[in-house]
Structures are given as structure tokens and as C-alpha cells.
Amino acid sequence: MELLRFATAGSVDDGKSTLIGRLLHDSKSIFEDQLDSVSDASQRMGLEETNLALLTDGLRAEREQGITIDVAYRYFATPKRKFIIADTPGHTQYTRNMVTGASTADLAIVLIDARKGVLEQSRRHAFIASLLRIPHLVLAVNKMDLVDYSEERFEEIVAEFGDFASKLDIGDLTFIPISALKGDNVVSRSEAMPWYEGTSLLHHLETVHIASDRNLIDVRFPVQYVLRPHSDEFHDYRGYAGTMAGGVLKPGDEVVALPSGFSSTVERIETMDGALEEAYSPMAVTVLLSDEIDISRGDMLCRPQNQPTVSQDIEAMVCWLSDSSSLDPGAKYAIKHTTRSARAMLKELRYRLDVNTLHRDEQVERLALNEIGRVTLRTTQPLFFDEYRRNRATGSFILIDEATNNTVGAGMILGEPR
Amino acid sequence: MSYELEHLRTLEAESIHVMREVAAEFERPVLLFSGGKDSIVMLHLAIKAFWPARVPFPVMHVDTGHNFDEVYEFRDSTVEHHGLRLVVASVQESIDKGRVVEQSGPRASRNQLQTTTLLDAIEEHGFDAAFGGARRDEERARAKERFYSFRDEFGQWDPKNQRPELWSLYNGRHHRGEHIRVFPLSNWTELDIWQYIAAEGIEVPHIYYAHEREVFRRDGMWLAVTQYVTLADDEVVETRKVRFRTIGDASCTGAVDSDAGDVHAVVEEVAATRITERGATRADDRATEAAMEDRKREGYF
Lengths: 418, 301
Prior knowledge:
Chain A is an alpha+beta fold and 418 residues long. Chain A has helices at residues 16-26, 32-44, 53-56, 60-65, 94-102, 120-131, 151-165, 201-207; strands at residues 2-9, 72-77, 81-88, 107-113, 136-142, 172-177, 221-222, 225-227, 239-243, 248-249, 254-258, 263-271, 274-275, 279-280, 284-289, 300-302, 309-320, 332-337, 340-353, 360-361, 372-385, 396-400, 407-415.
């Protein structure tokens, strides 16, 4: 069975918790004791109906204040796939939460209230999904029962959102009219909307093709850990352990090690279970080379004819994640990129992007929490990177405040500065 | 060739990646090993992550002294078989030193006391990273955990102030005295664990499989009759066919009625169950609605 990771974005008012509750409930992934405890809590809070949001809002403060503080992860399975939901709250710290939940997602569901149409928040969520290069976006137009299951209303929203989406870089966009409360088009096709010819949301989640979303072209193997057993049985063993970040690597392939530029041939690719005929993302493997060359953590293996950019100068989009500091030109940070760590200085803040209008503000002096901007960075050591839209693993980095050790920035590489 | 990776292999790769990151970036990691199924799977993943080299960190058992005999035997044979270094952090010693006070009464449990013993041991040995086998599907507070969970110098978890965690880039930076709890099994479910145990042929203590045992009813659970529990007057002992879904302190870990005598039967049983494993078997989580969150804030596993 394949694993699909998806993120949900939207506020409680959009019916996000109801939708998740329904997916979990109808796939029999809500357990009786969980439901009991949620219905007890709902009663204590004086609610008439069981509030399924309480299933995901697990922290004391969340229940007391009726808000969602942080990304919650939920798990369910159908006979076709296993699913991981990153349930991201839509209000304050929205970028911070959504990028956290979305960075590894194969698909994002953005909920829209059919009565309200495309709101500022819907645009923001769609923009972040496109910025993070989530390959598949589903716009779930919810509460169709409250607009009499009107095809006309649905088409209005599709047209309105389509205008905005055409300005974004979205690979696969699907619109589904649903009622999470009544169950229309969530698990099975709704009889109330015979005009809708697409599939139910769950069917879409079960069948959307994700295997080719990974980069299977550019071989990238960031060396994570060098295995040297020093035992009698494995006396001269020298294996490079790591996780495939792109391409398909096979024994016999000629490879180049960066930054040294030395080349060698892949002798074996193995795990404890034995030798592999090929390795691809996201497999965690060990690579053995036929020559003894000096390679350590942070180095990268790639093919001679297909190498990443090697540079100390990077241009990137950065989301600022810190509420206690801002991103300022001239400031220095620790940077983590693949298995490589270095320091980075912010050279230039080119513009701040208004996530609602996509307007570029070039007069900006700094980036604050939740803000997104285009920057150039200079690093203390060369990084080996690809454009983020080509490879999420070799095109992403985080910035860390060296005083507080907090993760303060998330970066998506555009390339070398022009 | 489809290049699709089966879900267990995807989860395995993710866990191995995290363990190698920790081994590369921390000075003194330790793997928390209780002899329960999750920590057994975690140890199995560690062995795979570093094969053919040895696991480059010790394992630590926070021992309440009230565990099932089968679990102690299993722990010792596992450690010996894989040539691991075992650190035992003893709750009894914490009691003897006056660091914690033993609860009294028929419902006394050492479960809560483990937090002090764990934090003292982390400090004493200077561990800067501690692998835990907790999974996000277990409990609501755990659903909010990161793979790398920052703990301050008091071992506290602050759920409102967690570090954002993006892609597979983990931030393990910390100041002296602080540490990171690392949860490589974050994305595994109980069913994934059992499917993996079956697929890999991993050995687990026999009490995970159905067996006849003397038990009594308390708080809607079957508790085993051991030297660590005191029966109330109205509690009646009976022999039933049961198995343990979780293994923890014998005083607060309930058994469930089961005929699942081998791993495949357990996989089927877990796939069909309608009650969560902690809901079915853990008295400690029933204390209050936020029992786990409160314990985690103090530094619990």
C-alpha cells in the first residue's frame, strides 16, 4: 500500500474539523473511546452536538480557548491507501503552521464555504500550497447543502478561484463540491448533486497519482553518515549512508562526489536486508564505491553529466517563522540544507510578497512573522542545490537563530542570484 | 518499474533517516528501551540504520521495578544478543535517594515517578538526545509532537512554543543542559507497528500474545495479579485468556481479552479493534482529559 500525506487548510468555520471527523469516522478510524471522551467533553462545554474538532484539538489550552494552536497529525487507512493528515490551523501563525504541515505533503485540501466564496484566507492557503510546491491541490467547496446544492454557485466559485489560481504555479487543481456535515461527495458520490461528474473526495485521495511527483531524474545522494564497522568481518568496509534525494541510482553508475569532484563507480547499494538493484527517493540506503576517496557527511554524490548548482550565493523565497525577531539584511544565521550545515548572511531583501494580492513590495526593510520575501544569501561554504520547483529535497533549507537556536526561516531556492 | 514504495518501507526509511541524523549531529544520544513493542521496533530500526556497524549509542531502561518478569528477561537477552550497552535508570534508587516519594494505597503506581528518574539519568549521563518510541496516533497531546522535541533544562515540553519542522531538515541545536527528545516512530500507527513486526519477523515478549493469566477487573480493565498490586475487598481474581496491547508498569497496564496467539492474529485483531490501545489498557491516561499532556510537560516520555 502506498502512503499519501495531505495537509488540510481552513478555519473551523469552513468545516475543516467536520470534514476530518467525517473522513476518520467513515473510514472507521475514530475509536469508540475517543468518541466517548469527545462527546463527554462536548456535553461539559454545554454543546448540543458532539464537536468533532475536539478530536484533533488535544491540548488543554486548545480546548479551553476553542482554538487550534499547532499542527496535529491524524492517521487513517482505507483498503487502497494509508493516509497521514497534517491538520493545520488557519488563523494566527498561519504561515508558520501551514508550511510546517505542507512541506512534506503530496496534496493539500483548501476548504471554502460555499456561502462565502473565495476569501482572502482561501487565496493565502492556495498561495502557500503553490509556494511549497504541493503537487496536488483540492479546492473543496463545502456546505453545498446550505446553497441548495446549486451548480451555479459552485461554478461561480470555480471561476473566481480559477482566476486567482492562474497566477500561481499549481500542477494539479481539482474542485469538489461537498457537504462535510451531510457527507455529500466525501466518501461516496452525492445524489443531491447529479450535475457533478467528478469523483468523491476520498476516491480522489485514494487514486491521485503521486509516484511520479518525486524527482526520478537527477541523482542526488546527500551523504548523511559514514559507516565504518572496524570489525573483523567488515574490516575495510566503508559505506556512505543516506536518503535518496532524487533520481535513480544503480550499481555500476559512475558518480562524482561534491565538493571534491573526485569520481568513482557505485559498487554496491545495500541495506541490512541485502543488495539493491536500484535506489530512489525516499529510500534510506548505504552506497559503497569502488575507489577509496575522501567523502564525509554533507558531501553529495551525483552523476557526472547531471550535477546540482554548487555555490555560496543563493536566491530564494523565504517564509519568516519567528514572532520574536525579524529577518534583516546583514543578519547572520545558521543554515541547514540537505545534510550540510553552514552559516549564512542575508545579503539582500528584494521584495516582500503580499500573499493575498501577490503584490511585490520592494520598499520593505525586514520580514516579520508569517511574511514571505525574496532574498539573496551568502553562505560560508558552498551548498549543492537545485531549484526548489525541480527538487523539494535539494531546493529547501532552514535558517536557525544562532542565539536562541530556534528555527526562524524556511527557504525555497530559486537558483544563483541574477 | 513504478518506483512506488510500500507504506511500511516509507515509514522505515523516514525513521532510519532521523536516527542517522541524530547519530551524526549529537554527542551523546541514548535510546529509551522499555521492552515494549514500540521500543523494540525502534531498536530494530537503529540496528538497520547502522548495519554493519554497531548501534553507536547505548540503550536506557527507566525501570520502575514493577515490570513483568517476561519483559526483564526479554530486555536482557536482546541487549546481549546485539552487543548493546544497557543503562538502567532505577525508580527504586530514586525512591531510596529521596528524589521521589512512593505512592501509597491499593492504587499506588510508580508510573508518574519515572519522569524524575528519567530526567536525573539524562542529566547524570549528559545525554543530549533521547530516542523515544512514542507515536502520534497514540494520544491527543502526542499528535502535536515533532520528530525533534526540544526540552529545556528542566526537561519540560512547551507545546505552544514548538520549533517549526519542515521537510526532513531537523534542528537539533540546543544549549548545554537542554536536550532533544527524538521520536522516530512519530508517523507509525499501532497497526503499522504490528504489520512491521510480522514483515520483519521481530521477536517481542510473549505476553503480547494470548495466554491464560490470573486477572481482576479494575476501572474497566483486566489487571494482572502480580506482587505489585493490592486487591481491594470487592475485586475478584479469575483466569482468562488475555494479551497485553501495551506493556508498561504492571500496576497500571491492563490486558485485553484475546485469542490472538501469533503475530498474524494480532495484526488482524488490531486492524478490527474499535478502541485505542491507551484507552483500552492504560489507567494512567484516564486520570484526567489532559493527563498525558500534563505528564509530558513535566518531562515524561
